[in-house]
Amino acid sequence: TMKHAETHRDIHGKIEEKYTEADARMAQMEAALRKQDDDLHKEINDRVDGVERHHANVSKETSKRLNALDLRISGLQGSSGEAKRDIHKLRDEVNSLTVKSAAHDVDIGKNSDD
Questions:
Q1: Cα–Cα distance list, 58 to 17, 48, 86 (Å)
Q2: Hey, which of 27, 47, 62, 113 has its CA 20 to 30 A from 78?
Q3: H or E element that contains 20
Q4: pLDDT digits over 23-41, tens only?
């Protein structure tokens, strides 16, 4: 049974060899997966940074546009207020002239009666 013991050692040797190979493959695969994971994290972080920068730029530009729009609206409101005041002044003037004209008509009427 010397042969049996030798066969037994051969089998154990082969098992140990395959175990070592499998262990090396798993370590290699784990390293490759960790690298892939790190690469993907870096890529997504770079993309997120790009989106955040873009958002900040768009937000700043939108804020500038809204401020410009606010100034325009404010200017238009001011002009509208001025126009309303001018219209009221003109109405008052027209009313005053109408009253004066009516008074003139009355004076003319009195003078013609004399």
A1: 61, 15, 42
A2: 62
A3: helix 2-113
A4: 999 999 999 999 999 999 9
